[in-house]
Amino acid sequence: MQGIPHKGRHRLYGYDSDWQTKPDEAAIVREMFQRRARGESTTSIARDLTTRGVKTVSGRDWTSGVLGETLTKHVYAGKVTFKGEVVADSIYPALVDLDTFNAAQSNLANDSAGTNTRRYLLSGILRCEHCLSPMKGNPSNQMYRCSTTYGGCGRLSVRITLADHWVTWAAMQRANLTPKRQSPTRDYDAEIAAADAAVLKIQADYRAGIYTLAEAKPLLDAERTKAREAAQSKARAAPRTNFATQKYLDYHRMNLAQQRAFISSHITGVVVGPAVSKGNQPFDPSRFLCEYPDGTKERLERPVDDPEW
């Protein structure tokens, strides 16, 4: 059976007044549902939308309350409700699939899960490989666990510090924010030294009477230009706090909600496998299977060509 959604005083965000999809707003709606389904708080999502200049239908900033209410609208999943009960399929296009909608409702209703996501970086982002249930931070032992309290199998756990480190590293890599080491193609110091030596020789030749002042000046200017250009090129090529490094520093100045938003924008989810390291062996990041917004997946690997690892 199909039905027509109730039309309020204002149009619903994502649709025009005739219930036709507005593509730019529909993309934001899908993003909101996906992020809430992954466990991100409504406060974090609303703050991010406000930072990006995304406004509500009335032209105001998004708030946690308005966003939370928006996410409860069944019409986004193609359903029509009456007195809180689903009574029919909407004749208008859905913006999100039913599974994503239901996952978002589960997180909205679960107050304890909401508290957990505000305390731990990857709560709701990590999922158990055995049962695919979200893993939650456990303060008693500082582990992310697949908890039977939240319907999981209880078979997997991973230390919070290790998971936070490796998933943050993966998000940085995905965003191409980690500074890369670049070998200089020119020997700038040698060029500067050669130009300085040429200046000294021209000055000595001028004093010896080999050059007149008119002859020496353009030669000196040319060598000094070479030295200045080499010094400027060296400064541009030298490691410094560039865009990538600044983004890395900015990340570590963010609050928890902003860090979760950053990670969620580059990694849609992480499936955690069982432990494979034994004894004193280093932690094996291949336990983490990262899922990216473009639909690709990647199992993390420990870098082998970096002395820091």
From TrEMBL:
Kindly state which keywords UniProt assigns to this record, in alphabetical order. Answer: DNA recombination, DNA-binding
Which InterPro entries does its entry note?
DNA_bind_recomb_sf, DNA_bind_recombinase_dom, SSR_resolvase, Zn_ribbon_recom_dom
Recombinase domain mapped to chain residues: 6-114
* Record-level Gene Ontology MF annotations: DNA binding; DNA strand exchange activity
Q: What transmembrane ranges does the database entry give?
A: none
Name of this chain's protein: Recombinase domain-containing protein
Q: Which species is the source of this protein?
A: Nocardioides caeni
Upper taxonomic classification of the species?
A: Bacteria, Bacillati, Actinomycetota, Actinomycetes, Propionibacteriales
